[in-house]
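Quarterly update, task 2.4: zinc ion-bound model.
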Amino acid sequence: MPAVTKETLRAFLHDSLPDGEAAEVERQLRDDAKLRAQFEQVRLEEDRGEHSVGAIWRRDHISCPSRDQLGGYLLQALDQDLIDYLEFHLTVVGCSFCSANLDDLKQKQAEAAATTKTRRKKIVNSSAGMLKDVTKPA
Ligand SMILES: [Zn+2]
């Protein structure tokens, strides 16, 4: 068997080696402290996510929810599954792209709420005015 490369170790870590080869790597790992150290290195790299699908997703925003979904999240108007996913995405993955998007939506929502309040106040005032008019002696 050729020398175990980092790629092989990575494949071993991800359980994607053919059985025979995996057994051989396992055997070499048991016998070879240097290889174990190298394996540890690969494992750490994978943990940091430098080669993981997750890292690529994070880089390219493939896993990012849509702006509509983020808006629904703010309004608590999503399925629990999706809420869980968004919470994971925002807090665990810590996607800065979506955090910024969410902040922007929050601000827009606050502005919209302020506008609604003003409008409601206007309606109340004008109704009060109408009531006054109605009750005014002719
Ligand atoms: Zn995102």
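Highlight for this quarter: The chain has two domains: 1-51, 63-138.
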